[in-house]
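Quick start: load a record and inspect it. Here is Piezo non-specific cation channel R-Ras-binding domain-containing protein:
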Amino acid sequence: MYGHWITLVMVLVAGLGGTSLFALGYLVLAFWMLWQGNNLYTMKDYRKTLSRWNFLLFYTIVVMFFKISLQVVGCVFLSPLNSGAGCVVRQLLSIICVDEQSCKALATLNTKSDNCIVDVKETRIGFDTMALCFLVFQLRILHSWYFQHCMIDFRCEIIQASRGALLINQLIEKEMKEQNVQQQAKFDEIRSRTAAIRKQYEEQQLKGAQSTFQAQTYGQDSVQQPRPLSMIVVDCDDPFPMYDPRRTTADMGVPAKRAGDYYMFNYEPDSDELVAPVESFVPEVTPGAGDFDKLDPAQLLHTAISKDMDLQGTLNAVETAEKIKDEELRMIRAVAASDEKNRDLVVAVLEPVEGHSSQQVQPTIQEPTNVEENDTVTNAVRFGGKIFRSFLDWLSAFLNRRSREHRYVAFVLHKEKTRLMNEMNHELYDEEASLKEVRHQWESRSLHMVSSESDVSRLEEEAHVKWEQKSFFARLLLAVANCITAHTDVISFVIACIVHAKCAGLITLPLPMLVFFWGTLASPRPSKNFWITLISYTEFEIIVKFIFQFGFFPWNSNAEEAASAREYFKPQYVFGVQRVDYFAFWDVALLIALFFHRYMLRRLGLWKDANIMDTFIEASDVNRQATSTTEVDISDIEARELQSTTQGAVANVTTLPDEQRGVISSFIFKLFHPKFRYIRDLYPLMFFLDVFCFFIVVFGFSAFGDGGSGDVLSDLSSNRVPLTFVIMLIVISLMIVVDRGLYLRKAVLAKLIYQLVTVLFLHAYLMFILPAITHKSAYENSVAKFLYVVKCIYFVISAWQIRNGYPQLCIGNLLTHSYGLVNMVLFKIFMLIPFLFELRTAIDWTWTDTSMPILDFFSMENFYSTIYNLKCARTFETSFPAPRGVPKGIIVKYSIGVPLILALILIIWFPLLAFALLNKIGTELPPERVQFSVSFEGYPRVFTMEAQGNEIQPINKMMKEQLRSIISNKNNNVSVSDDSAALLAKSRRAVSYIEEYSSKEIHIVRFRPVSEVFWEISKDSLEALQHLLENGSNFNNETGSIRMNVDFAVQRQRAGSKEPVVHTTVFYVDITPTSPPGAWDGLRKALNVSANEKSEPVVLSNVLPYFLTVPNEGQVKPTTYIHEVFVKSKEDANASFSSLTLALSAHDDTGHSNVWVTQTKAPNSDMTKIMDIFERKKVVYTPDDRGLFYMDTVIFVDRVFPDYILKYAQGGIIAMYIALVLFISRIIRGAVTNQPLDVIISEIPNPDHLLKICLDIYLVREAHDFILEQDLYAKLIFLFRSPSTLIKWTRYKPKQD
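Running the structure step on this input writes:
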């Protein structure tokens, strides 16, 4: 039966395998055959059908013959066809040599041309051969006896051409009635209960007062003199007699929102009927197909964990529990203990609840013994298979719920078709009999399975398909197939949008326009004319695209394409006829989807009379309907559309437009005044798609505008935000607000106008405005095309909402339509996002009719969010119960307790651990430049030098090993009297310190000995310094001194940061006339040096440490661990510092070209050995400085914390404790501990009645009963104010007084 479609798809593939007239013929013939569809097999003359298939087979053979014959031209006589008209002919017929290696000897006759390009794959016959094979096989099927049964099936489909529309109309009418009844029952229940309560209260009031308690204002109190108690009969049962509203006078203003009192709760809460919403009223023809009455995978894992991963016991418990229909009792039985004592306890508890079923369940608790309990591998495989099967069953049930209507119609039609074949077998096999006459006989015999609402229920009970008898894999495949076939229209709409997104040209623009302006808005469903138009235009644009793929068009040449590469409004791209590979892939996919959808419509009786409005027809009207049917041809659609059958119609049906209405007027009238409609709340899906578009714009902004770097994240990190980006975010946010407002106001007409305007603007923006902004054609903008597809899906869902109307009750948040774990987590995330709850509530208050002020509206939403969280928590406890009186298993304790303990310990000691492992987990950040300067306090710097580039080099592994060896051997030969233990400890500390650094983290810095700048000192300052050194005293005639500072600055550049990290330090020495020895006189003489001479070196002992440490944050410090190895005590570590020598070189008498020369000298022989390890370098770049050496310093560079830790570690360990550990501890403490009074709310056992009050408030608000809204809100407030009443209304089994 399906070979017809497979063969024609193969012919289409052969046509798209190349660009030639032969391929074009394939396309035309395939389109012609696809257009006929199953009508090919319902013709009276079957020979015409066979002749059409024979013609297609003959054409395939001819094409193959010509392709092979033209190889003679392509391989031998190709030269005349390389230019001009010959090239056009060559490209039209795809003339090219396939196997050039076989024609090398004929090269002189066959000259190539670069101007006439033909692809070799276009002339091959691989696809033609496959199409030929499929055609031969299809002809064999057409001549078989089996196909005669298929033809009878096709004839039955035509007879049932409008039956599916009638069945769907019946379902819609039935569902609409049930929805109205359920909604009205809610209103009636609330009104009747409120009236009864108020009547009872008024009777109580009249016992001792002439007036009753009536609220006069909403929230403003009026203070009046209360009436004396002697005039009032006090109720002795009232626990608060002083708080009695009967003490007020009639003219006293009483606040409505505080008018709640005990009289509102003078009945048992269990008498409130908690009606669960019905997902669908469509009959379930496959029992159990849409229900999942087993343990889901998460519950299976919970059961296994609660039994300490005893897989054998888990499987036995699950097998027993899944025999129980009640979901809560099923999980209780699953997690129940296995031992005899606790098992008997569970059975005793469940017996009163289960009633008669407990006797059947109790014996099954005995564990089977046919499986080895010690076979762990087998049990693990069985348990894994159970989880896998449970997931597939859950997925099958989920998919079946999406296709319930489709499966019902298919089931009824299948039964009616079977009945038709049995009752009218002779008429169906009679080729001379007209299908119109056969249909008249079928109608007159009343062979329909459903003609009234009672038949729908009867059919549901008589369903013969046993879902559980199929394998789980077969159930999944059947569910997937049903879900796909039930939504072929939506699939076609989405593919049509993808076609336009891929092409982004004017030629495909009518496809989404037809979808959004006609197909998705047609009520109750798109007509046959729409699908014919969409199919016709799809075939047309495929043919046009195919024609423009030929290479002889000038814009298809490579030279023209390269010349216009920078243009973003190229004509071929604007019209969508550019030459690209796989140009019609999605177009053919759309065409196949459309033909498959047409096939499903015909099978389901929805093709011809798609807009029929008939529903249930009484038996007395059958003959009249049959008579009217004989007067109308089967293909006559409009006549049925104009018939108005009112039997069994609901009260709110609007008469269909008459013949005087125009086409557009009739279309719009039926859109806003349908006879029946489904009511579904699709706003959550639309909101999700809008948010998804928001993130597409955020993370793909470079495709929508210029400004900044194109990367939004990097722009935000650099405090640059493009204006276009901000405008787009504001526009999207406003669109979400407008959509929410239309949803709350249920403004269908405004929603339609908003939809049409948005559709037009989106297409104009993406096709014309956006390319002008980004200088990139719409075809090349992949992110914009992805946004377009997502937005088109939004338009499809939005059109469905417009066609069927908004729900009457719009309650709560988008995430609160169910109470599962996922909903609870998402709702908590929603509440944590700043301003999102406030924004949504403000929008709801603005566009919702309510008598509550905005602050009370916020309070009401806060009440609802709290109660919703409680409901989700109790649902989670029900879905994953813990058995009573059973200690927690080892798996639970160790899987929760141990990670929690380790996490807390890690958090407590994280700062210490982070700094201890800094050089292991940190990021290497070598120094880029090191500056060394010497200055006298109060005077300009005498020496400045900066090392960078090659002057900063990491040491090699040999140098590090030699350094470690010298230090470790330094104190090995000391005598006992020298406190060898302390000296050895110093060596070990130094060696351990060195081992913390890799050789790449230890750098040797070499400074040139001559200052890089002249000594810029004024004559006056020089004379003042000379005077100080000459006299040796200060202003107070005391011994003079001068401080010399040695400054170090190490600069490192952090990745991603503009500002470098700079570490500084200062070493100083106070110079006096006596200390250091010779330094004072040496400086005095150096300042008096003559021109073109160099002073004697001034030696300053133990000034500069040879080893320095650069920490991750803070100042540079001497590496004390190494320096103290060479001295006796830590306090004498400076004794191992290098000595610094200064000499002034004067080049003239002016003093402006004086320069200081510095050198370092090891303080002892041990340091000399260490300096030799690092190979002191001699200055060789000028002949005058050959006696000088570079000044060396070894620095140990700490790693820096990663960026995600750096902001907490900048202040050191103490700051990290304050910023991180204490903050986290407050969060954890707040999560695990509560205030004692919080238990009143957080431990409410049964929040169902509280939730019902909230839902009732939403319901009466939608009904515009604002007095009742205020009374229910007052009832809710009083309930939270009265702990005793709250306990009574939230316990599972209220106490009977």
